[in-house]
Amino acid sequence: MIKELKCKYKNVTVESIFTYLRLREPCQKKQKTLNKRIVVKPILHNEMNSRCQVDLIHMQSNPDRDMKFILVYQDHLTKFVLL
């Protein structure tokens, strides 16, 4: 490792290499624990409009006359969107 580093870099001390090697192992252990994720089962449906998502956007800063909200409706099965 020292030989390779001397070819590519200057002023790398043996102390810094040993420090790197000591700290490298705990970092690899941390990465292994971060990769574990929770598996979520999807909600299955087979009819249109059986599951949907509704978002309400408040347009307080830029109303269009009396219209102050935008309603966004999305069907989960077809991904069809209505505004």
Radius of gyration from CA coordinates: 28 Å
Strand order of the largest sheet: 1-2-3
- Order of H and E elements: HHEEE
What would the average pLDDT be, to the nearest integer? Answer: 81
Proportion of residues in extended strands: 15-25%
Shape: elongated
Count of DSSP H/I helices: 2
In the predicted model, the low-confidence regions spanning at least 5 consecutive residues are: none
Q: Describe the main β-sheet briefly.
A: 3 strands, antiparallel
User: What's the count of strands?
Assistant: 3
Q: What separation lies between the terminal Cα atoms?
A: 61 Å
Helix fraction bin = 25-40%
Structural class: alpha+beta
Question: How many structurally independent domains?
Answer: 2
